[in-house]
Structures are given as C-alpha cells and as structure tokens.
Write a structure and sequence with these properties.
Elements: E1 2-7, E2 12-14, E3 20-22, H1 23-37, E4 40-43, H2 56-64, E5 67-71, H3 77-89, E6 94-101, E7 114-120, E8 123-124, H4 129-141, H5 152-156, H6 177-189, H7 192-200, H8 205-221, H9 225-238, H10 243-255, H11 259-272, H12 274-277, H13 280-298, H14 305-314, H15 316-332, H16 337-353, H17 362-379, H18 384-397, H19 400-412, H20 418-433, H21 438-453, E9 464-469, H22 487-500, E10 508-511, H23 517-527, E11 531-536, H24 540-547, H25 554-566, E12 573-574, H26 575-579, H27 589-603, E13 609-615, H28 626-636, E14 640-644
Parallel strand pairs: 1-4, 1-5, 5-6, 6-7, 9-10, 9-13, 10-11, 11-12, 13-14
Antiparallel strand pairs: 2-3, 7-8
Helix pairs in contact: 1-4, 2-3, 7-8, 7-27, 8-9, 9-10, 10-11, 10-13, 11-13, 13-14, 13-15, 15-16, 16-17, 16-18, 17-18, 18-19, 19-21, 20-21, 22-23, 23-25
C-alpha cells in the first residue's frame, strides 16, 4: 500500500477572514476518506512543534512518503517548512490543497499545483464534500504521472539527485523506521518467493522497489531470468526512469537470448539518460550483451570443438565490440576488475583464435588488472568473488603451478556456495570449448569439479505442483462444500491428475496441509515419491486447531497430517516466522499464505509450475483465494487442472 503524509495546521485556527477553521474536521472528513479511497495509507503527526522544527518521525515521513498532501490555506510556518524539506529530498509527489469559501472556481489540477476544497461554518462544506473528496482522490491517484507533483527545486536543478533513503534513516529506530528496518532485515535473508510477498506488503513505494530489485537479482542468480525480468518491469511501472532497473532489465533480455531487445534497451537508456551513457556500469552492460551475442553465434549444442572454434573466429565484430565496452568500463573505474577481466579474457581469446589483427593493449590492461585485483585481495582476502577473479587472472597469465594454487585458494573460501562454484565452472567452459591453454584450463576444472563434488547442490525440481482446494467440512457447516462422502472421488481425481502430469521422483509439491483437499493431494504425491513442501499460514499448533482438527473426523485428519509431517525432507515453513506478522490487522492469513505459495512456486521457474485445484468454481475471493490463483496460473502458463467438486460423485457418509 502506498504511503501518504499530510502536512497541515492543527486544531482550530482563524482564517484570513478571522473566522475559525477546524482543521481536525478537514482532516477527518475530507482528506482521510479521499486518500483512503485512492489506496493510500495515511500518516499525520499529531503534535504541533515550534515553527521551523521537525521531529525525526516527520522527517522520515517526508523522505519516504509516496505522496505528501499539504494544506496551504493558512501561512503556517510548519507546513511551509515541511514542503521545503520534501521538495529538497524528493523530485515529485507533492500535492497542495487550499480551502475556499462559497463557490470559487477550482483551478485545473496542474494550475499552481493546488486543488481547492470548500468550507462552510469552519469545516468541509457538506454540499460539495463528496465532489471535493472525489477530485482529491482522483488527482492523487494519478500523481506519479502528473507534472504538478514535480519539485520546483529538482526542476530548477535538473542534475540534483534524490538521496538513497537508507542513508538518511536515524540511528535510533522510531515508530516509523522500526517497522521499515524490521521489514528490510527480513528482506536480506529471504528467498525469492518470500521477497515477492514482502514486496507486495511494502509500506511505501521505495521499499516496494527495493524488494522487487532484490527479488530480480536473486532470480537472476538462480537463472530464472524470465521471472526476474517481470520484477524489473514492475519497478519500471512504478518509476520509469529507474536506472538500475533498466540496466538489470537489459541484462535479463541478453541472458534470455533476446539480444536485439537488450541492445535497444541500452540505447534507450543512453539516449534518455545522458549521465548513464558514460557510466562504467552501462559500458560493462553493453560489453556483456555483445559477449552474449558472440557466444550465441558459435556455442551450438553438440557441435565439435573444432567447429565451434572456427565459427567463433569468424564472428570478430561482436567480440571486438565486447572487448572495447569492457575495456572502457575498466578504464573509467579501475575498481571494476570483473570488467577488466572480461576485456582481457576476450582479448586473449581473439588472439588465440587468430582473428583479424586489431589494436591490442593487453599488456597494459593486464598490468592494471593485476593491480586492481591485488588491491581487492588486500581488502577482502576471504571473498570468493575476489579470489575467483584472481584465479581466472592466473589462468590467463600464470603458469600451471600458480593456476592450481589460485584455484585452491578460491575454493577454500567458497563457503559451500554451489552457485558461485558453478558460475566459475561455466566460465571455464568457454575457455575449454575454444581450446585456450588446455593444460591450465583442465587443472582449474579438476579443482572446481572437486569442490562441487564436496558441495551439496541445491534441489532443482523437475516439475512443481501447486495445490489449492477446499477443506473438509466442519460438523456445523450449514451448506456442504466438501462433505465426507466426497473424499473417495476427490482422492481418485487428484491421483489421476498427477498421473496425467507424470508426477514422480524429482518433482515438488506445494500446499498448506489442511484437512480435505490439501491432505488428499499430499498423500497422492507421497505415494508417487514427489517431494513434499508444507507452507503454513499460522504457527503449527494454531493451524492444526483451525484447519485440521476442526473438520468432521478431525482426529483422523490429524493422524494423516502427522504421517505426512514425518515424511517431510524439511520441516514446514511457517509464514509469520518467515515473513513477520500480518501487514494489516484485518488481513487474512490463509490468503496471504496462498500468495506466498504462488510466489514460491513461480520462483522455481514459471515453465515448471502446474496448478491443481479442488474447487467448486465460486468466485468473489480476492488476491490469494483459489479463484485468484486459478486466474493467475491460467494467465501465466495455462497449466491448470481444475477438479470441479460439483461434478464429483458423492458416497453416503
């Protein structure tokens, strides 16, 4: 939910005509309903300090709020001070309102950056209150795309940049930053699916963006670039000019083999954001796209090494373009040793392949790179990224003994990070396929492969089965939905669906574990040796009481749950333990858990997910309900198996 902060006078104050204006009524009857209708969570300080002073809470609201609404009916110094702070901190998101008596004409929403509301007897005019609320709600809803939200300071100083909100948080946590910090702490240790739920629950757009970026980066690391791309697109919906998201998006496109689109994305970034054109990050990104393009032209499946080498040598144009982009990135920022390492690697490969002679300053680049990596090693001797870069440099320039020593140093600090080791192995594959320094490359392979053999690889499911279905009816349920007589037919239908999908060892099943459909699904998956993964919306004792034991024959369902529980490879994950308490007091924990299940399933790979639901087809539930999950999976993959409980035969109970 977006976050709005209201800056306005407090209590009752005399207007310019000397008559009192009750600003508490203005807030309660006009502003609060209008902003809630716009989907905003509203904050307002409740104490009035000395003119020109602002406490830490107010400053944080002015920094973090997506929207600041300021009432400038009076020349209140605290309101003007708040406006000045906000205009300096953020480039947009300010909206001004001002009271008027009688039937004064409203300016257009962009005129003088203000919107009028009507007063009568010191409070909102009842005759125009509904219309005034609607105008405010509609205008604030469109504020991210409206010119009237632009800060005059940032408009006058176009090179002024907004500060990173993280750098301005107070040392001591307060009522506002405490929840933000707790949210951020969870984000740091969360899995990709968890991060996506936290993003949807972020208390303001800045945190939503931070979470989407974190999710995208995590998904890229897992090589789920299609789903990562979606996260960066979501960031750009919120902030179209977000430079990091635009770079990440281009990188995703390149990894997905959409090289033309990736180049267009970089060209658009450079054209629309001149300051990004010469940035080393942009140069390195352009280099990675050209490198991916070059590799895609010759690295063909099942091709012989000799054939790949000949094709690689013939594709000099993208190779040379990649070298130059990487070299420029390193020259602009020598701390970017990865860019320098890529430039040197590709230079030496070009020479090895006998490509057309081009300007080659590999010796100077090599000397600078050696210094850069050495400086990084002095600062971070136990960092795998630095150590592996040193090993790759030794592979390019060092003798066999030094190569072995450097790779052993690197694997010693890998810390069991399978993905990091596998990334190093993929880099070696490029050199092996092109026959570069075969003895040294083989030695490096041997050490990396040995480290991988001693590291437990992450579980990567072949298929993911996501399930949602009706609970078994409670004894006092007025209208039967899943009576006991439906159980045999439901169990048979679930089993047949899994068989049709080829369920078996190496697959993963995700659901909550409630009586009825969930347990029938888990039992069927267990019988087919599918790995089971339970994700509970509540602490387990409370979940068992509400969702298992509450059904008719609850003791029998509890016994079946326990049998499944004992067969799990990992204990159930409990939503409040993993993601914290409900974001809103009236939120539904079961719908929140279904959103968590859906995000977790998709984070394993969109194309792997099949959704199975045991459902009567009734709609009306919001995000997280079965209808929402059904629609979302149908939109994404079409791999939906709906077992309609209305069509199943019932047996006498």
């Amino acid at each position: 939910m977006r976050h709005a902060f209201v800056a306005m006078p407090f209590g009752s104050k005399p207007g310019q005509d000397g008559l009192a204006i009750d600003f508490e009524r203005i807030f309660d009857d006009y502003m609060l309903p209008a902003l809630h209708a716009a989907g905003l969570k509203v904050f307002r300080t409740r104490t009035e300090g000395p003119p020109g002073e602002a406490d830490a809470d107010m400053l944080q609201h002015l920094l973090m709020a997506d929207v600041v609404v300021a009432d400038i009916t009076l020349d209140d110094p605290n309101v003007w001070h708040a406006l000045g702070v906000r205009h300096a901190l953020r480039a947009s998101g300010v909206f001004l309102v001002q009271a008027t008596q009688g039937t004064a004409t409203d300016p257009s929403p962009g005129e003088n950056q203000r919107l009028r509301y009507h007063l009568k007897a010191g409070g909102p005019d009842p005759d125009s209150l509904i219309d005034d609320r609607q105008r405010l709600s509609n205008t604030v809803s469109s504020l991210p795309d409206a010119q009237h939200g632009t800060s005059p300071i940032h408009h006058a100083l176009p090179h002024l940049r907004e500060p990173d909100w993280r750098t301005l948080l107070p040392v001591q946590r307060n009522a506002l930053t405490g929840p933000y910090a707790a949210w951020a702490d969870r984000l740091d240790s969360a899995r990709p699916g968890d991060i996506l739920v936290l993003a949807d629950e972020a208390p303001c757009t800045a945190l939503h963006i931070a979470a989407r970026l974190a999710a995208g980066d995590a998904l890229m690391r897992l090589r789920h670039c299609d789903f990562a791309l979606e996260q960066f697109d979501r960031v750009l919906e919120l902030e179209p000019g977000h430079i990091l998201a635009r770079r990440r998006r281009a990188s995703c496109l390149a990894r997905l083999g959409r090289v033309i689109e990736a180049r267009e994305a970089v060209c658009s970034l450079v054209t629309e954001t001149p300051e990004a054109s010469e940035a080393p990050e942009t140069r390195a990104l352009a280099g990675s796209i050209d490198k991916a393009d070059w590799i895609s032209r010759w690295a063909l499946a099942d091709a012989a090494h000799g054939a790949m080498r000949a094709r690689a040598a013939s594709e000099n144009a993208p190779l040379s373009a990649a070298i130059e982009h990487y070299r420029q990135a390193f020259m602009r920022d020598p701390s970017r040793y990865r860019a320098g390492l890529n430039a040197l690697t590709l230079m030496l490969l070009r020479r090895h392949l006998g490509c057309a002679k081009a300007a080659d300053d590999s010796r100077r680049l090599s000397d600078g790179l050696q210094w850069s990596i050495g400086a990084a090693l002095a600062l971070m001797p136990d960092d795998y990224r630095v150590r592996s870069s040193d090993a790759e440099y030794c592979l390019l320039r060092g003798d066999l003994a030094h190569v072995r020593e450097a790779y052993r140093h690197a694997t010693a600090v890998a810390g069991g990070d399978w993905h990091a080791l596998d990334s190093s192995r993929r880099s070696l594959c490029l050199l092996r396929d092109l026959g570069f320094r075969p003895a040294e490359t083989a030695a490096a392979f041997e050490i990396i492969d040995d480290a991988l053999a001693r590291t437990e690889p992450p579980f990567v499911p072949r298929q993911i089965f996501l399930f949602s279905g009706h609970m078994a009816d409670a004894p006092d349920r007025a209208t039967p939905r899943f009576p006991a007589g439906l159980e045999p037919a439901a169990a048979a239908a679930i089993g047949a669906t899994l068989d049709a999908l080829g369920a078996g060892p190496g697959d993963l099943a995700l659901t909550q574990g409630a009586s009825g459909g969930d347990i029938l699904f888990l039992e069927a998956c267990k019988a087919r040796q599918v790995r089971l993964h339970l994700m509970l919306p509540l602490p387990e004792p409370e979940f068992l009481a509400r969702s298992v034991a509450s059904a008719r024959h609850g003791a029998r369902w509890r016994t079946r749950y326990d049998s499944i529980r004992h067969a799990l490879d990992d204990p159930p994950r409990v939503l409040p333990d993993e993601l914290g308490p409900l974001p809103e007091a009236d939120a539904n924990p079961f719908e929140r858990c279904n959103r968590w299940l859906l995000a977790t399933a998709l984070s394993w790979g969109i194309d792997k997910v099949s959704f199975i639901c045991l459902w009567n087809g009734e709609g009306g539930d919001g995000p997280g309900g079965t209808a929402h999950m059904h629609a979302e999976m149908k939109r994404r993959t079409g791999k939906v198996s709906w077992i309609d409980t209305r069509k199943l035969p019932h047996q006498p109970a």
